[in-house]
Design goal:
two-stranded antiparallel sheet, two-stranded antiparallel ribbon, 13 helices, 4 strands
């Protein structure tokens, strides 16, 4: 499957199939599974891809594959109304990134588009672009594309529009200027520090336990939103990092915990500002 797309895309920066090991399957519900660890997803995607390779490309066989997958896999969803597509698997020459097994360029499909057999139908798969395309500025999108090193983390973070927007706006405020793509992509130290921020999606220590799921429900209907921090109960004014804390799904039960969380963000922003100074 090609890593490029012809024609215009909203926001001018393509975010789906980027390069051999970087792609995003978030809108297909990739992370909306009972166990969204990287190891579990690798196992799931491998089993699906190997099974689908043996499926004859007929409507009945492809629909039977979906039923087999749904019967075999745990159907518990952290976000029940966020559809998880059973046709997401490995794509690319090396099967090294996630993508649609029904796509006309996927191995074994011989140019035939089978996406009409998916839950939303072929048209939705062809024309849908997630909110990150429309709302996230071009430079942050370009930076995230370039500094990402694997499909798992890339897909988790690229749809976090509010969090990324707030972070880059604060960084530009500190710098007193607009960022360019090369400010970070061409700066090894800056890229390293930014990656530490992006990895908070996975290792943020202030999330409630147990963690419900890693998926980000980014659709416009806002069926699932992260709860606000109750600053009134803390007797403390709203944090200047409120958007970041909320989008990281923070559980803050004391002023001490709030200040500890703020220091993590302050440290990263400070180091990144220094690296770009």
């Amino acid at each position: 499957m090609s890593c490029q797309i012809n024609g215009e895309v909203p926001g001018g920066v393509y975010l789906c199939q980027i390069r051999e090991n970087i792609s995003c399957g978030a809108c297909c519900g990739l992370y909306n599974v009972a166990d969204a660890s990287q190891e579990a997803l690798v196992s799931m995607l491998t089993c699906r891809t190997e099974t689908f390779a043996r499926v004859s490309r007929t409507m009945d066989a492809i629909l039977a594959f979906r039923q087999e997958i749904e019967d075999r896999e745990v159907q518990t969803r952290p976000y029940p109304q966020f559809h998880h597509c059973p046709y997401i698997g490995w794509v690319g020459q090396k099967r090294s990134r996630v993508g649609c097994l029904l796509h006309p360029l996927a191995q074994g499909n011989h140019g035939v588009d089978f996406r009409g057999l998916s839950y939303y139908g072929g048209m939705a798969c062809r024309v849908y672009f997630c909110p990150a395309y429309h709302r996230l500025p071009a430079v942050p999108k370009e930076i995230i594309r370039e500094v990402s090193t694997d499909w798992y983390r890339y897909g988790l973070i690229i749809t976090e529009t509010a969090m990324l927007t707030a972070f880059f706006e604060e960084l530009e405020r500190r710098l007193g200027r607009k960022l360019s793509r090369d400010d970070i992509v061409a700066n090894e130290k800056a890229a390293e520090v930014l990656t530490q921020f992006l990895d908070l999606k996975l290792n943020w220590p202030f999330r409630p336990r147990p963690i419900v799921g890693w998926a980000n429900y980014f659709f416009e209907d806002r069926l699932y939103v992260n709860p606000p921090i109750n600053y009134e109960s803390l007797g403390h004014p709203a944090s200047k990092y409120d958007i970041l804390l909320r989008e990281l799904n923070s559980s803050i039960d004391s002023v001490a915990t709030l200040h500890k969380a703020e220091r993590v963000l302050e440290r990263i922003l400070g180091r990144l500002t220094e690296a770009l100074g």
